[in-house]
Amino acid sequence: MFKSSSHLLRYVLVSLLAIQGLCSAIAVEKNQTLEGNSERDQGELAVRTSDEYTIIHKWDADGAATVIGSAAGVGLVIVGAVNAWIGYEGNKPDAQKICGKSSIISITDDGVGYKYYVYSYTTGSNCDSTQRAKTITNALSDAFDQLHSEGASAVCLDFDHHGTWHGVIGLATDSSGHDPQAACAGHHGGAKRSNAGFPELEANKVAKRKEIGLVKRTPISVSQEREMSGSTKFSPPNKSQAVIIGIADKIYQQSAAKSCDPVTGRLTDSDGVDYNYYYYASGRNCDTTAQLKTIVTALDDAWEDLGSISALCMTMRHGDGTWRGHLGISAMQSEYPAQKLC
Prior knowledge:
By secondary structure, this protein is of the alpha+beta class. It has two domains: 52-212, no CATH class; 220-340, Killer Toxin P4, Chain A (2-Layer Sandwich), CATH 3.30.430. It contains six helices and 13 strands. It has helices spanning 2-31, 75-88, 133-150, 180-184, 241-256, 292-303; strands at 39-41, 44-46, 52-60, 98-101, 105-109, 112-122, 152-160, 165-173, 220-228, 263-268, 274-282, 311-318, 324-330. The longest helix is centred in the first third of the chain and has 30 residues, at 2-31.
């Protein structure tokens, strides 16, 4: 009798644990979106909150106006916006809660002329954000894919991370005739535009990629070799976002130019650690079909395991393509030169 009761109790406990695990999994799937690979936070797997965007104003292309490119064609715009927003973190917000803003920037991306304007604001007391470069590049990419499919030629977008931080970008193709700064003027801190010349659109929030018909893209795999350890270690990923987006920008531009030439540089993270890098590509034409967001995600994910490393070589591959990206990066350039790691 006691043996039978013990088996019954064990069965009930196992069943309850299984139900609890199922409910937890459903809750995660309903409320949050995994970005790339699972991330480790203090030894535990963590689910990151995805950025969402709201379309504040949008103008559809008419006449000779050129449509905003898809994410594959606006990588330089995306990296410019992310770099600006990261640069504003740590600032003290002004009286209007603005953390920082750019001038109007002219750029040609994938053969199309654009003008864009970015700023960030806060609904709290500081300008910091818990966002990562990969989450905001994914959200920007989703936004531009949607706008391209809808035939938009100019837009103002507001991004948030379910916190106090907001990043705003106004973007217009040159042929649209719109001013990207005017498109976003007066929108911050939850303000709503009342100017009849710029009609309000219903807030359009996108939290799940499948809602706008996007397909999952092939990730970049990263292998690590020649790991060196010394007195200066790599900072954690959340402190290295400016370095990650900076290197991703160089990789993206080299691919767009189909250049096999090496590039070098030096970047500093928010902990004050300096990194020297040396990058070159190999393979047919030395280019990859990987989008900027895929490159950023690969670097950001790889950075998770570098807390005990001072220098290393990363080799990147994208699916079955011939492209190989070789990145030597060193936080101790005198002892471990980046150009000798790969």
